[in-house]
Amino acid sequence: MRELIPAAERAASLLRKRGQTVAVAESSAGGLITAALLAVPGASDYCLGGSVVYTRAALLALRDMDVAMLKGLQPATEGYTLFKARAVRQRYGADWAIGEGGVAGPTGNRYGNPVGHVCLAVAGPRESALTTVLEAADRIEYMHRFAAAAIDLFCETVAAAP
């Protein structure tokens, strides 16, 4: 996880300068995004927390979630990941939120996405979403790469916001 700290420090710096907060809804990164943000000393200044939303049941367990809200949304897509980010932002009362969902392996998912496929999203005053396929040696490395890519997209999005 130490390789995630420089990106988390950038995120912390951006948020502190703006006096803003972040929450996280991650899946295949397994909590690494939130853990990296919390590893920066003074994280309570900007990080409200995170949820590992690994299954549909976990997403529906969030406050005020309803199965009808998921109609037309397929996991491992930008739309679904942006929905998760928006939901956690609203429920945590955060200025920003990071959403992540990917396929860490060892096989692809039931929707036809290959190992390494990841969708990332940032919700806030400015929004962004990205789908990419990353290369890694194993499941653990994929989890770390997904987390790094999510924090990088977050930093880019916040830095570009007015």
List keywords for this structure.
5 helices; 5-stranded mixed β-sheet; 5 strands; single chain; alpha/beta; Maf protein; about 160 residues
Describe the SSE topology.
Layout: H1 5-18, E1 22-26, H2 32-39, E2 47-52, H3 56-60, H4 78-92, E3 96-102, E4 117-123, E5 128-133, H5 139-160
Parallel strand pairs: 1-2, 1-3
Antiparallel strand pairs: 3-4, 4-5
Helix pairs in contact: 1-2, 1-5
Please characterize this protein's 3D structure.
A five-stranded mixed sheet has the order 2-1-3-4-5, sandwiched between helices. It has helices at residues 5-18, 32-39, 56-60, 78-92, 139-160, and strands spanning 22-26, 47-52, 96-102, 117-123, 128-133. It has five helices and five strands. A hairpin with a 4-residue loop joins strand 4 (117-123) and strand 5. It has 162 residues and is α/β, with parallel strands linked by helices. The chain has one domain: CinA-like (Maf protein), CATH 3.90.950. The N and C termini lie far apart (31 Å).
CATH topology: Maf protein
What's the shape?
globular
Widest sheet, order of strands: 2-1-3-4-5
Binned strand content: 15-25%
Given as residue ranges, the uncertain stretches (5+ residues, pLDDT < 50) are none
The count of β-strands is 5
Rg from alpha-carbon coordinates:
14 Å
- Name of the CATH homologous superfamily: CinA-like
Number of helices: 5
> Level of helix content?
25-40%
CATH class: Alpha Beta
What is the helix/strand order? HEHEHHEEEH
- Biggest sheet, in brief? 5 strands, mixed
If you average the pLDDT, what whole number results? Answer: 93
